[in-house]
């Protein structure tokens, strides 16, 4: 492939502006008209005999450290502020823009696309517009060996020059054709290196050709850098989107289509249609599909002059905040479409970025901020809306309302008895200028009610205290609370009442406790007496169980009684032991006399055997030991 059209440095360029010879590429062919940036870069790498495309990319984008950055170039859009492309090729950025999607994007946005987060990468606004894979016409490549920018668009499917389908696949290795890669060669398959000019030619069906004819003319128009869609004023600070949106609205109204119908056709939300027509930010592809639905071409769109009347009309108040004018009530007919006449602005608050609206169909008042969010926070109604309010209510109703308000009834009660909404009641206080009076009356009523509640509670508590003091029961907060029908915290709001109750309870409780103690002591004494009369061993548990107490509680609450019980128990225990010893001694004596009668010698073993006792008894019964000693030593004598 031989290039005749080499670029020659202009002789006029000043010496100091001249770059060093090593800063520019030795071989700098002009881009073809309609060539894409990625194709041009591949071509440059090829004619300058770089080892690989990645070597070339590292030369023009030295800041790129990883090879996958190459994929940034697939969008046919300037990235990284062009890198060193302008220096290396000695082409101006304005010239280079013709190789990219910038003219297309520029029609709808200002270049470069900047958001509040900074520069927007092309991957954010070009998806669905630019194809991420390559498609080529082999016949075109045979005629002129360069990659066309228009092939890079997703919606382009055929070559209109040769009436053939664009090839998306390598016929040898069956791989999808890729745009760029580290070892990519110009006009070759990146996988098997087959020459793309050898790809098969498949003719396109007629209906596809017809459709593509219109579509490609449209896209060519958008890619052309010299035309604009709208005429902007000379100041140049006007946003093209606003004017474009207005044109869209005009065209839609010409076709007598509602916003809702358009949103349905495009499969987008009503809000997005409204945003587009208002010139706010919407995805780029919406513009393309919207125009498609209006079935006119972009050149016709660009040529369209909006009638002066229409432009003026759009500035009328009924078109202000059109996108906010839909009713929040789901059942309302104005919920699903914007209405300039059925939903009216009551007040606009630009400093707070919100406006009050009234839906005339369902009479709902609502507030929206400029972003369309419904503000549900309770707020004061606009004072000037009184005329509107009075239109709906009769004089009798207003009189009744006033009367109730000045009595200090709560807004809830009033709303309930009037059958209104509580917010309506509040609005009336404001419009009737009664707000302060009503609030005062309501506060008065609340104080009175509180007082009444306190007195009622006092008499209740008094009655409960009386009935409790007749009973053999301690008076506690818990008891009183239960009697009142609440928990122990029933009286926490009335500290004075609690104080009074404590005074009353103190005497009563002391008496009750004393009585309870005496009763308990009598019971314990009885038990001890019974125990003393019996020969049954007992523990402290046996005793406390009989008075329905645990040992711990008994020991803690009645220490004196506990000592008494312990003394009685140890006394009882000693008595039982003595009885036992006596019984054993008797047994031993009997056994000894039996042995003596039989003439058996007296030994410990013989005595134990005869008495049926075990040896260890002598350990616990010293008296038994003494007796045995006497018996055995008596025999020895
Ligand atoms: Zn072709
Ligand atoms: Zn291949
Ligand atoms: Zn409504």
Task: Summarize the amount of helix as a percent range.
Answer: 40-55%
Can you tell me the overall shape? elongated
Uncertain spans:
1-16
Figure out the total of helices.
26
Distance between the termini: 148 Å
**How many DSSP E strands?**
8
Mean pLDDT: 84
TL;DR of this structure?
By secondary structure, the protein is mainly alpha-helical. 49% of the residues lie in helices and 4% in strands. It has a four-stranded antiparallel sheet with strand order 5-6-7-8, with no helix packed on it.
Tell me about this structure.
With 637 residues, the chain is mainly alpha-helical. Among the domains are: 15-222, no CATH class; 574-636. 49% of the residues lie in helices and 4% in strands. The protein contains 26 helices and eight strands. A four-stranded antiparallel beta sheet has the order 5-6-7-8, with no helix packed on it. Strands 1-2 form a two-stranded antiparallel ribbon. Strands 3-4 form a two-stranded antiparallel sheet. A hairpin with a 4-residue loop joins strand 3 (158-159) and strand 4. Helix 8 (240-254) packs across helix 10 (270-278), helix 16 (411-418) packs across helix 17 and helix 22 (551-557) crosses helix 23 (559-598). The longest helix is centred in the last third of the chain and has 40 residues, at 559-598. The radius of gyration is 52 Å and the shape is elongated. Residues 1-16 have low confidence and may be disordered. Bound molecules: zinc ion (3 copies). One zinc ion binds next to loops.
């Amino acid at each position: 492939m031989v290039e005749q059209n080499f670029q020659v440095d202009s002789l006029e360029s000043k010496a100091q502006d001249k770059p060093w010879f090593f800063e520019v590429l030795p071989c700098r062919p002009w881009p073809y008209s309609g060539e894409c940036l990625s194709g041009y870069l591949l071509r440059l790498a090829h004619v300058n005999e770089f080892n690989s495309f990645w070597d070339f990319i590292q030369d023009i984008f030295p800041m790129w450290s990883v090879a996958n950055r190459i994929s940034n170039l697939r969008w046919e859009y300037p990235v990284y502020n062009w890198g060193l492309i302008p220096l290396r090729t000695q082409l101006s950025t304005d010239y280079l823009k013709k190789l990219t999607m910038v003219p297309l994007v520029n029609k709808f946005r200002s270049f470069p696309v900047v958001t509040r987060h900074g520069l927007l990468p092309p991957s954010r606004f070009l998806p669905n517009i630019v194809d991420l894979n390559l498609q080529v016409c082999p016949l075109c490549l045979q005629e002129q060996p360069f990659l066309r920018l228009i092939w890079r668009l997703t919606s382009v499917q055929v070559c209109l020059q040769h009436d053939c389908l664009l090839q998306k696949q390598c016929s040898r290795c069956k791989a999808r054709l890729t745009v760029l890669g580290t070892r990519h060669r110009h006009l070759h398959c990146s996988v098997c290196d087959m020459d793309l000019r050898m790809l098969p030619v498949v003719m396109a069906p007629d209906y596809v050709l017809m459709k593509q004819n219109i579509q490609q003319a449209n896209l060519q128009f958008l890619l052309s850098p010299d035309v604009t869609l709208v005429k902007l004023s000379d100041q140049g600070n006007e946003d093209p989107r606003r004017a474009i949106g207005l044109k869209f609205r005009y065209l839609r109204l010409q076709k007598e289509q509602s916003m809702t119908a358009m949103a349905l056709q495009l499969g987008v939300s009503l809000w997005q249609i409204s945003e587009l027509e208002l010139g706010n930010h919407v995805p780029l592809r919406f513009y393309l599909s919207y125009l498609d639905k209006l079935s006119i071409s972009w050149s016709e769109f660009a040529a369209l002059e909006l009638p002066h009347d229409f432009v003026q009309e759009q500035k009328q108040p009924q078109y202000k905040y059109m996108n906010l004018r839909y009713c929040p009530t789901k059942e309302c007919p104005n919920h699903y479409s914007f209405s300039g006449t059925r939903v009216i602005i009551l007040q606009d608050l630009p400093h707070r970025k919100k406006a009050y609206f009234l839906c005339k169909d369902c009479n709902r008042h609502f507030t929206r901020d400029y972003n369309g969010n419904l503000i549900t926070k309770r707020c004061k109604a606009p004072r000037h809306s009184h005329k509107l309010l009075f239109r709906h209510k009769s004089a009798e109703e207003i009189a009744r309302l006033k009367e109730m308000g000045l009595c200090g009834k709560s807004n809830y009660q009033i709303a309930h008895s009037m059958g209104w909404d509580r917010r309506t009641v509040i609005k009336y206080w404001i419009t009737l200028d009664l707000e302060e009076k009503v609030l005062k009356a309501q506060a008065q009523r609340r104080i009175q009610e509180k007082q009444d509640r306190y007195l009622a509670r006092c008499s209740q508590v008094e009655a409960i205290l009386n009935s409790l003091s007749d009973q053999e029961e301690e008076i506690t907060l818990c008891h009183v609370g239960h009697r009142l029908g609440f928990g122990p915290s029933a009286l926490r709001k009335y500290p004075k009442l609690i104080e009074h109750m404590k005074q009353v309870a103190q005497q009563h409780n002391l008496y009750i406790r004393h009585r309870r103690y005496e009763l308990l002591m009598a019971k314990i004494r009885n038990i001890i007496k019974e125990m003393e009369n019996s020969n049954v061993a007992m523990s402290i548990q046996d005793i406390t169980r009989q008075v329905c107490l645990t040992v711990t509680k008994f020991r803690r609450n009645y220490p004196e009684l506990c000592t008494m019980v312990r003394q009685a128990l140890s006394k009882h225990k000693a008595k039982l032991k003595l009885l036992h010893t006596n019984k054993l001694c008797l047994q031993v004596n009997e056994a000894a006399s039996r042995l003596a009668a039989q003439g058996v010698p007296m030994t410990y073993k013989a005595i134990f055997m005869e008495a049926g006792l075990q040896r260890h008894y002598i350990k616990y019964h010293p008296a038994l030991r003494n007796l045995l000693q006497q018996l055995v030593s008596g025999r020895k004598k």
